[in-house]
């Protein structure tokens, strides 16, 4: 029988009633003839409680013990989901990560799945079991210790299972009903997309649209897993939600798929840096070694052998960045007059596969912002994305103006 | 280095503060030079919450899923205890049942430990780890599924580890400071025992003194594990609590060690049973097959070929017992006029190794009760115990009178 993977996030299994509702959705797919692998998160709030206890016990905790503690919430949901399905007369059983086993690296709290041997679960399907419920977010290291995949890791668990079991599709049930052209709370004209390409979803996911964990999209793209995002709180038709799929499967699409934004970006500038070969390398090596994730970079035109170097990074890494460059200065590696941090900025991005073949998207974006009187501080582009840093107070205005200008409220 | 097993019950690890207090006790033993195996229960209330969810989800639950769910509380405590010890610079790590592995039978929810290979933990001790924290109450079946040992099973886990690792002692930290001659809430003269023999503890444990799980005492007796019961809420000296040990290690002891009682006992009588060979076997086979745990049995003198058969069983099994004998009657296996259930009774027992060599304990017990005007309904005796069933309203009076008569307030 074909295999379907269904993943239910924390809000979708937050209470026994919601677990029952999710189980009913699983029952519908079983009735259609699928053998189903269900990936569950912890009941919402549970993982945060456990993380809180660990932090209170040991601020600089041993990540192996952290993993042993915080993985327990998923085990509870998996067992309860199995019992709920059994009550509905659906043959089901739960599996913890080590039982499958979900083999991961030893990078505790941020482990990567290396292999999921399908034999154990497939042999149970062959015996008549119809649903395998697997605790998401967790695995087992080569040393036999419990690992976790990082927050949101259950999405990655789901996609990895879909790949390992060659599932027909991986349905991610969550508290939103799909992927939108932008956040509906910012633009009332935001439209749910029926389909979106992996590459676009990847840009949107990493740009702050919190629907899917970035790694799960990367994995889906690599293994060509059809990924569907849909709401566990609405009655579902077969084409509900948003399908994340290969570019080729999308017949018609807008040049721009969506407008993303992030408030968690800061702009930092090193003023009056000696402009000589290798200086950029020195600065960004120091930042990298200091654990700073630099996103955008701009270097001003040099004047009298000195220049300004500007970059953006997550707001919560500003202190770390200041320390990294100050240390590099006192070590004589770099030289500058001043460091300026501006946390009052936002990043706006337009994303779309269509940019590859359509020119003029960047020009149009800049015109729209200019017409609204919004000054652009930094620009970066990739093949399918243009991002700008602007004053945070203009963020909503910029999103709405761009959404209108690219006519995202209309389907292709 | 010598190995010590320390077990902390749910109230002793109910909060992060209490886990810290328990960890400090562990640190004291490590400083003395012990390699310590710590067995932890779930934070108090957690297991009940999980059991409640399972019952609400599925009244006739799959015991395998029940075990997968309810075992998760211990995993949380084990990880938090490891982190707490690490914060105190004590090299420690947590182990879940399957990681040790604690090999059990497949009797889910009531599994028995079959083997605990010490190699994994011993090799870590050899590397310098000083404390292995093991999640109590759980193990793994030959099929690789999680099992639990039944409520209170962490005591059994602790004793089994003490046996497998040839520990010097197994310290059970709980919310009382030892084993008493009787319940201090019933007799103000109750005295804490410094030592008690395994056999006596076994009778007291199964008679309703809820300090230790019966199976843990059986196991300790079989493997000659020195078991100490002590409070986690008091400063401890080396001879704190009560040592449960072999008879030979107790130099002086009272003839009677303690007075136990149970309110959860019911008296049932089958009136006018045909008195022919095999009839007792038929009755008690029917009760046994009906899942009734019969404790005491009395058969009246036969008159005109008919007799009354009386037994005691736990109060919550009365309905089951009534159904079992009624079914046996309608199947023609037994014949009786009437069945009477009296749930208004209590069982009082005096227990002591010394009874083996001292006669007259039973006679004295009966005299004491008679002098108080308390009628005895049923009597049973074993080598080291005499139990009687009396009207429940006399329970406290009987306990106090017997405690006085046998001078249990005085040490031997």
Automatic annotation (TrEMBL), chains A, B:
<keyword id="KW-0457">Lysine biosynthesis</keyword>
<keyword id="KW-0028">Amino-acid biosynthesis</keyword>
<keyword id="KW-0547">Nucleotide-binding</keyword>
<dbReference type="InterPro" id="IPR001341">
    <property type="entry name" value="Asp_kinase"/>
</dbReference>
<comment type="pathway">
    <text>Amino-acid biosynthesis; L-methionine biosynthesis via de novo pathway; L-homoserine from L-aspartate: step 1/3.</text>
</comment>
<dbReference type="InterPro" id="IPR036393">
    <property type="entry name" value="AceGlu_kinase-like_sf"/>
</dbReference>
<protein>
    <recommendedName>
        <fullName>Aspartokinase</fullName>
        <ecNumber>2.7.2.4</ecNumber>
    </recommendedName>
</protein>
<keyword id="KW-0067">ATP-binding</keyword>
<comment type="similarity">
    <text>Belongs to the aspartokinase family.</text>
</comment>
<keyword id="KW-0418">Kinase</keyword>
<dbReference type="InterPro" id="IPR005260">
    <property type="entry name" value="Asp_kin_monofn"/>
</dbReference>
<dbReference type="Pfam" id="PF22468">
    <property type="entry name" value="ACT_9"/>
</dbReference>
<dbReference type="InterPro" id="IPR045865">
    <property type="entry name" value="ACT-like_dom_sf"/>
</dbReference>
<feature type="domain" description="ACT">
    <location>
        <begin position="268"/>
        <end position="350"/>
    </location>
</feature>
<dbReference type="InterPro" id="IPR002912">
    <property type="entry name" value="ACT_dom"/>
</dbReference>
<dbReference type="GO" id="GO:0004072">
    <property type="term" value="F:aspartate kinase activity"/>
</dbReference>
<keyword id="KW-0808">Transferase</keyword>
<comment type="pathway">
    <text>Amino-acid biosynthesis; L-lysine biosynthesis via DAP pathway; (S)-tetrahydrodipicolinate from L-aspartate: step 1/4.</text>
</comment>
<dbReference type="Pfam" id="PF00696">
    <property type="entry name" value="AA_kinase"/>
</dbReference>
<dbReference type="InterPro" id="IPR041740">
    <property type="entry name" value="AKii-LysC-BS"/>
</dbReference>
<dbReference type="InterPro" id="IPR018042">
    <property type="entry name" value="Aspartate_kinase_CS"/>
</dbReference>
<dbReference type="InterPro" id="IPR001048">
    <property type="entry name" value="Asp/Glu/Uridylate_kinase"/>
</dbReference>
<dbReference type="InterPro" id="IPR054352">
    <property type="entry name" value="ACT_Aspartokinase"/>
</dbReference>
